[in-house]
Amino acid sequence: MKDTFGIRSLGPCRVESPLDCRFFVDDDGRVLLDATLAACRDCDGKPVALEQAGPRRRIFFEPRSVRAAVVTCGGLCPGLNDVIRALTMVLWHRYGARSIMGLRYGYEGLIARLGHEPIPLNPDVVADIHKHGGTILGSSRGHQDMGEMVAFLAQNRINVLFAIGGDGTQHGALEIARERERRNLDIAVVGIPKTIDNDISYTQRTFGFETAVAISQIPIASAHMESKGARNGVGLVKLMGRDCGFVAAYATLASSDVNLVLIPEVPFRLEKVMAFLESRLQRKSHAVIVVAEGAGQDLVPVEGADASGNKKLGDIGVFLKKAITEHFSKIRMPATVRYIDPSYMIRSAPANADDSVFCFQLAEKAVHAAMAGRTGLVVGIWNDHFVHVPMEKAIESRKKIDPTGALWQSVLDNTGQPANLM
Amino acid sequence: MKDTFGIRSLGPCRVESPLDCRFFVDDDGRVLLDATLAACRDCDGKPVALEQAGPRRRIFFEPRSVRAAVVTCGGLCPGLNDVIRALTMVLWHRYGARSIMGLRYGYEGLIARLGHEPIPLNPDVVADIHKHGGTILGSSRGHQDMGEMVAFLAQNRINVLFAIGGDGTQHGALEIARERERRNLDIAVVGIPKTIDNDISYTQRTFGFETAVAISQIPIASAHMESKGARNGVGLVKLMGRDCGFVAAYATLASSDVNLVLIPEVPFRLEKVMAFLESRLQRKSHAVIVVAEGAGQDLVPVEGADASGNKKLGDIGVFLKKAITEHFSKIRMPATVRYIDPSYMIRSAPANADDSVFCFQLAEKAVHAAMAGRTGLVVGIWNDHFVHVPMEKAIESRKKIDPTGALWQSVLDNTGQPANLM
Amino acid sequence: MKDTFGIRSLGPCRVESPLDCRFFVDDDGRVLLDATLAACRDCDGKPVALEQAGPRRRIFFEPRSVRAAVVTCGGLCPGLNDVIRALTMVLWHRYGARSIMGLRYGYEGLIARLGHEPIPLNPDVVADIHKHGGTILGSSRGHQDMGEMVAFLAQNRINVLFAIGGDGTQHGALEIARERERRNLDIAVVGIPKTIDNDISYTQRTFGFETAVAISQIPIASAHMESKGARNGVGLVKLMGRDCGFVAAYATLASSDVNLVLIPEVPFRLEKVMAFLESRLQRKSHAVIVVAEGAGQDLVPVEGADASGNKKLGDIGVFLKKAITEHFSKIRMPATVRYIDPSYMIRSAPANADDSVFCFQLAEKAVHAAMAGRTGLVVGIWNDHFVHVPMEKAIESRKKIDPTGALWQSVLDNTGQPANLM
Amino acid sequence: MKDTFGIRSLGPCRVESPLDCRFFVDDDGRVLLDATLAACRDCDGKPVALEQAGPRRRIFFEPRSVRAAVVTCGGLCPGLNDVIRALTMVLWHRYGARSIMGLRYGYEGLIARLGHEPIPLNPDVVADIHKHGGTILGSSRGHQDMGEMVAFLAQNRINVLFAIGGDGTQHGALEIARERERRNLDIAVVGIPKTIDNDISYTQRTFGFETAVAISQIPIASAHMESKGARNGVGLVKLMGRDCGFVAAYATLASSDVNLVLIPEVPFRLEKVMAFLESRLQRKSHAVIVVAEGAGQDLVPVEGADASGNKKLGDIGVFLKKAITEHFSKIRMPATVRYIDPSYMIRSAPANADDSVFCFQLAEKAVHAAMAGRTGLVVGIWNDHFVHVPMEKAIESRKKIDPTGALWQSVLDNTGQPANLM
Hints:
The structure is a homotetramer.
Chain A lengths: L7 E2 L5 E2 L13 E3 L4 H5 L7 E4 L5 E2 L7 E6 L7 H15 L4 E4 L16 E2 L2 H4 L19 H10 L4 E6 L1 H17 L4 E6 L15 H21 L3 E7 L6 H10 L4 E3 L7 H15 L1 E7 L23 H15 L5 E5 L2 H5 L5 H19 L2 E2 L1 E6 L2 E6 H6 L9 H10 L7
Parallel strand pairs in A: 6-7, 6-9, 9-10, 10-16, 11-13, 11-14, 12-13
Antiparallel strand pairs in A: 1-15, 2-5, 3-4, 4-17, 7-8, 16-17
C-alpha cells in the first residue's frame, strides 16, 4: 500500500539549490498516514507514509531555465491571489526564476486558439493582489483538449505548471502529467488543491476553507436576528458543501447560534426535521437552520452535471424554505422563514489572516516540489506536516465528516439537535 | 402653508423640566424648510419652517407619572436596538421615568388577546442590546384593530407611546393619535421613522440607511470579484429601494466599482441596458450592475400587497439575471452572470458608528417631544437640525432621487453610465 | 458681512461646459448661513449666505487646456485616496482634461530642487486606490518657500491646483492664490479641507471624521473589555482632537460604553475626575474614559510647535494614566489602568462607505469650482448643501463643541458624567 | 520516557456515561509525539505517545454530583468567554451537571476573605458571552495561598476545577492537584492552556493565537500606510511574544507587507538592522518592521518580574523607535518613524471563527477529561489530534520558533530580510 503514495519525479536532481542550506528537507522525510500509537505498533515496521514537503539540497531545474505557468480553475475561493502571489515571489526571489506567466480563465488559457493573452507575473504585478478576493487570472470550469494544452506548454517552453483547482482540475493536471510522461517532456506539474468544501483527501485542510467558515458567520448572525425579529421566526442559511458538511459544521461550531445542521453525510427525513422545529419554536419562538448544499439530495432529485463535471444539485435551500412554510401553514402555527444563500459573498472574499499564511506556505512547498522535479502531486498538510500527495490519491475519493467521530459529536453538543433524524 | 407643519400638543406645559437648564430649546425655535437665499427673500417674511426638536423648560408630564411603551414594526433595520436602548436610558436617567415597557412583535403587542407579554425595559435590560442587529422586541407587519389597541393603552395606563416604523407604522400611529384626541386621552404618540430606503419626507436621513449603504459594499465587492473572475463576467446586485434609489445610489458612490445603476426614479429600456453591457464587456470583459428592488417594475408586473399594505414588487433581480443570460446566449457572446440578493444580511446588521450616534440623538429628541406633550409627530433632521415633523407631512409622499439633481449627477459621474436608457 | 463670503474668480466664464445641461447650478445659488426662522426674519432681507457648489453652464477653462495638480499635506486621514481618485476621474471623464499630476510629499512636491518626481494621474493609476488607507502621493508637514512653489507651478504650466489639507495647508494655498493674483496668473487654487478633528469652520463635516469615529469603536471596546477584565479596571483611550472634542464626543455616543469624556472645550479639575471615578468604581467596579488629545492642557504644559505650526500638546493620556494609578494607590483602592492610544490606526484606515461617498461629492464640487475659475476657496457642506467657503473664512477660527448645545447634552445623557468637573 | 506523559486519575471509573455511545474514545488511544516515519521505525515499538482526549464510556463522577468551578487567570486573550460558555453548555446539556460556578478575578476568586462572590453559570447566563471579548469572570495575575485555595474548594464542595490560564496558572493548578492528592480529595483539576503567544509545549496551537494574528493585520496595515505616507517612512509595530515570535511571524506571513521581523529566538545587532533599513529606504523609500516584545532584550535590560512571576521586559518597541530616529538623524537621511503598540486591542478582541471552533472543542475535551476523573492535565492538540498533556510537561519549557525550521524559512522568504543580523 505504501508505494501508492510514491511521488513521480522528472529525473535525478543534479543542480545545487541556491537556497539557505539550513532549511533543506531530507529526501527521505516521511509523515505517517496514521499518527496513532496503535497504527505504529501494528504495521510491522512498515507504516504508510507521505513524502515530506520542503526545499531540497539538490534540485532538478537550473533556476534561470525555469519557465513557469500558473492557472486557476473552477469557482472562486478565498486565497487564490495569495497563492498566485506567493508562487511568483518564491520563484522570483528565492530561486531567481524570471519567466512566470499567469494563464487566463482556467484551462482555457492553455488553448491557443482562444487567444487569451497570458499575464506576465513578477513582484510588482502581484504586490497587492492578496488584499482582494477573486483571482487576477480569471477562471473557468471544464476540461479542454489535452493535445492542445500540451502543445501550448511545448510551444511556450513551459517546464513548470502550477494548477490551482479542485478535483476536476487535478484530474486534468494528472492527465497532463501523464501525457508529459508519454512524450518524455521535462514538465513538472504541481497542484495546489482548491476546495472551499475542504473535501480533498489526505490533506487536513484546504485554503479558503477557514475564510469560508469565518464569512459564514455573517449570514448566520443575520438568520439569527431575523429569526428573533419575528414570532416563530426561522432563519435558514445554505452553505457550501456538495458532498460533505465541513463548512456547515465548522460554521455552526463557530457561531453557537445554530439549532439544526443538515449535511450530506447524515441523512434525514422531513417529518423529523419538522417535529424538531415545532418543539423548538414552542419552547423558544425562533430557530436557526444551516443546510449544506449537498444535504437531502434525495428530496430534490435533479439530472445532469456542470461544465466541471460536478453532478448538478437540487436546491435544498429553496426546497426547505417552501417545505417549512407550508408545514407551519398546514398546522396553523404562525411562522416566518427567512432564507439566505450567501455563497458568492463567501467564495469571493479575500483570505483571512490564517488562510493567507497557509496559502503562502502551500505555494512555497509547491515551488520547492517543482524545482526538485517532482510532478503529478498536490501539496497538502497532514498530521500538521506539509506533505506531497500523489494526484491519484488526492482525487480518488472525497474527505467526509464521520458521523461517529469527534467533529459531528461537537456539532451535536453545540446545537442540541437530535442525533437521529431518520 | 406654514400651519400644515404645526405640531399637536396634549395641552399646556405646567411641569418644570428636571433637566440641566443650559440645554433648553426655545419653544419658538423653527428651522427653514428651504435654506436657500432665494427662498428666504421670496417668502414675504413668512417662510415655511419646522419646529425645532429638543428639551423644553416646561414639560407636560410629571416624570414619575410617565408610563411609556415602545413598539417596533415592519422589517428589520439597523439601529432598532440602539433606539430602544436610548429611549430607555433617557427616560430613565434624565427624566426619572420608571415604567417603560417594550411591546412584542409590532402592533400585535397592543392586542391583548394575542397574549404577547411586554418586556419591562430598564438600563440593565438594554445595556448591551445595541451591539446586536435586529430588535429585542420582535416585529410584525400590518395593521391591528384600532379599538383594541387604544383599549390596551388605556388598560395599561400608557401615556407615552413611541412607534418605531415606516410609513405604514406612522400611519397607524397617526390613527392612534387621532383616536386619542377623540377620546380626549392624555397619550403622547411620537414616531421615530424607520425606513432603510431613506424615503420619509422632510427628514434628510433615516437611521439604518448609512449602515445599509456600508454593508452593501460587501455584495458589491463580491459581484466585482465574481465579474472579474470569469470571462465577460457580469456581477448583479439587488439592493433595497421600493420607490427610490437612495441605497443603490449611495452604495454605488461608496464603491466606485459599479458600472450601471438602475433605480425606480429613472426608467430604462432593456435594449439600452443590453447595448451598454455589450459595449462595456467588449472594452473591459466584466461589468457590475446594481439594481434597486423597485426599478423596472414595468418589466415585471405583479399584483397584490404585503401585510403592511406595500404593493408587491416583481423580482427585477431575477428577471435581469435571466434576461442578460439569454441576451448574451442569443448573440453568442460568452458571459457569466452572478446574481446576489443580500437584503436580509443588510437589514439585520447592527448599526454602524454613525447610525448609532444618530439613533441616540433621534431617541433623545423623541423623549423630549413626548415629555413636552407633543403628539402626532415624528422626529427627523432637516437642513442639519433636528426637527418635529407632523405625521401627516411625513407620510404624505415619499422622498425620491431627483434625476436632475446633484446626487444623480454624482452617480452618472461615478459609473460612466449613459444618462438616458430609454 | 455678506461680502466676506464672496468667492474670488479668475475672470469671466466664456467656455461652454461639456457637461449634461440638466445638472447646472445657478451662479446666483446661495445657502443661508443660519437656517433658522429667526435669522431669516431678522436680516432685513439680507441674510448672510454661502455660494452654492456645483457645475456651471459656462466655465473658465477650455478643458483640454487644463493642467491640474493635486497635493496632499499634513497627517494621514481616511479618504485621501478617495479624493485623489475622484478628482482624477471627474477631470478626466467629465471634462476631458488629460494632464493631471500628483505632487509627492505635500508642499515638498512643489519644490523643484527636492527632486520629487510627480505621479501622472489617470483612471488606470487611480482605479483601486480608494480601497486602501493613506495617500498614494505621500505627505509632509510644514510650509515651503512661496517663490519656489509659484515658480514650480509656472514652470509646469499648472493652472489648477487642488490642495487637500488642514488649516495650515489652506493657509499656504491662500498665500499661493494671493501670489497668483499679484502676478496675474490664471491659476485656480481650490482646497478640499482635511481635518480628522472636524474643526474647519463653515463646513458641518469634513471627510475622514466619520471613519475616525467608526474606527474609534475598536479601542473603546477594548478599553471596555479590559476594564471589566480586572477588579476596578479603568480603560483609558486617547482620541484625536487638538482643539475640539468632536471625535471624542461622537465616538462616545456611538459606543455608549464610555463613562467619562474629557474634551478641550470643557475644562476639568483632576480632583473632580478622581472623585467621579471613585464613586463609579465603587458602584460598578469598572470605568471607561475617553480623552481628546487637546483636553486638560493646563495640566500638561509644554512649549513649541510642530512643522505645520501646530502648538505642541502635552500628553494628557500618559498623564492621566499615571495620575489615576497614583491616586488609587494612594487611597489604597486596588485599580488597574489600561491606556490605549490608537491614533495611527485610526488615521491610516481606508474611508468607510459614507466617507467615500462624501469624498466623491467634495472632489466633484472642487473640480466644478476650479473649471469655473473659482479660486481661493474650499468646498464644504453647510445646512446639508454643498457650498464654496472663502479660504479666509474657513481658517479664521476653528469649529468647536458648544458646551451648552445639543451635542454636549447628548454626551452627558449618554455617559451620565457630571456636567461640571471644575 | 513514555511514562512522563502518563495522566493522573482520581480512581477507577464506575459510572456509565450518559453520552451517545457512538462517540466514545478508547481508553488506550494514544497519539504519537513524533509522527514521522523515522521516529516510528527507530523506537523499538515503543514510541512516546500522548493520551487521546474525548468522552469515555465509563466516567468517574456521577453527573448530578458534580460541582464544577471555572477560573480565568492572567491577561486577556480572545476566546476566554467561548471557553467559559462551552464548559457550561457541555457540563449542563451533555452530562446534566447543574452546579457550575464562575470564580471572579482569577485565583483571587478562591480566596474567601477577598469576598468575590462567584457567578452561577448556566445556559442563560452564558448564551451570548462569546460574542464579546474579555472574560465575564474577570481575571488577575499572581499566586494565592495554596491552603486558602484548597480550603475554598473543600468548603464549597467543588470537585471539578477548570483553570484557564498560562503557565503560571497551570503551575498553580498543578500545585492544587498535588495538594488534592496529599489530602486525598476527589477533585479533578483540568487546565485549558491560554497563551496568546502560542508557546505552551506539546500543543500545536493555543486558543486566541489565530485571532491575535488576525487582529495584528490592522496595525501592520496602518504601519504600512504610514510608512508610505511619508518620505522614508518607517512603520514599527510591536506584537506579543515574550519568549517566542509566533505572533510576529504568522502576522508577517499573513500580511506580506512586512520587511523585517525581529523575534526573541533570533538575535540581532542594531548596526545590522540599521544597515538593512538604510538599503531598504534607498531602494523603496519606506519600510515596515514588526518586533516581538521579547526580542532584543540584551539591548533593553531591566530587572524584576510582574505579579505572575513573568520576568519584566524592556520596551524594545520604544527603544527601536528612538534608535532608528536617532540613527537617521545622525546620517542626515530624512526618515519618519511611526510606532504602534496594539496589544490591548489584540488581546481584548472576541475570538474569530476558527478560534471559536477551537475553544468549543477544547472545552468539550476538558469536560470529558474531568468527568472521567483525569486530573493534573491540560487539553491540547498535537499532530492534529486532541490530547491530554500532563501539566508538568506542558509547563516544563516553552515552545519556540526553530530558526532552522520551515516557519522561519517562510518568514525569510516572505520579508526578504537577511537571515543573519548578527
